[in-house]
């Protein structure tokens, strides 16, 4: 049974930083590309970042480029999202997702496993 468990969310002031973690189990982690998505109330789920199976390639949504960094540790079955210079518009539930599509997709439809999400709230 595949499980993805996010942690690290919380309340932070604008300009601050948070580091999200996602612990994966029940899958051969290094064979999955991983992604982070977010969803604010009343909005569509939005691509944030993705990383290839071995971590050599990454992709970012335009709104987070140069502020967020995705990384992974295949030895620990973990994926991380370092978020710097946070803005109120970054407020959302953040989801970790896993894809075996063979490439690190920016589309949510390529991901077959999802975590429950962790809330990030950025105050102004």
Q: What report would you give on this structure?
A:
Strands 2, 4, 5, 6, 9, 10 and 11 form a seven-stranded mixed β-sheet that branches. This protein is globular. It is built from no helices and eleven strands. A hairpin with a 6-residue loop joins strand 5 and strand 6 (58-60). The N and C termini lie far apart (40 Å). The protein is mostly beta strands.
Report the sheet-strand fraction: over 45%
Number of helices: 0
- Secondary-structure-based class equals mainly beta
What is the gyration radius calculated from CA atoms?
13 Å
- Overall average residue pLDDT: 96
Q: Give the uncertain stretches in residue-range form.
A: none
**Got a strand count?**
11
The run of helices and strands is EEEEEEEEEEE
- Approximately how much helix is present in the residues? under 10%
How far the N terminus sits from the C terminus, by CA atoms, comes to: 40 Å
The major pleated sheet works out as: 7 strands, mixed
Globally, the shape reads globular
């Amino acid at each position: 049974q595949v499980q993805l468990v996010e942690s690290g969310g919380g309340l932070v002031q604008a300009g601050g930083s948070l580091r999200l973690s996602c612990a994966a189990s029940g899958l051969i982690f290094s064979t999955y590309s991983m992604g982070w998505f977010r969803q604010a109330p009343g909005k569509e789920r939005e691509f944030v970042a993705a990383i290839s199976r071995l971590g050599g390639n990454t992709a970012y949504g335009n709104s987070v480029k140069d502020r967020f960094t995705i990384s992974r540790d295949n030895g620990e079955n973990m994926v991380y999202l370092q978020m710097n210079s946070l803005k109120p518009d970054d407020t959302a539930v953040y989801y970790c997702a896993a894809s075996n599509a063979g490439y690190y997709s920016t589309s949510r439809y390529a991901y077959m496993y999802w975590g429950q999400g962790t809330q990030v709230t950025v105050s102004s």
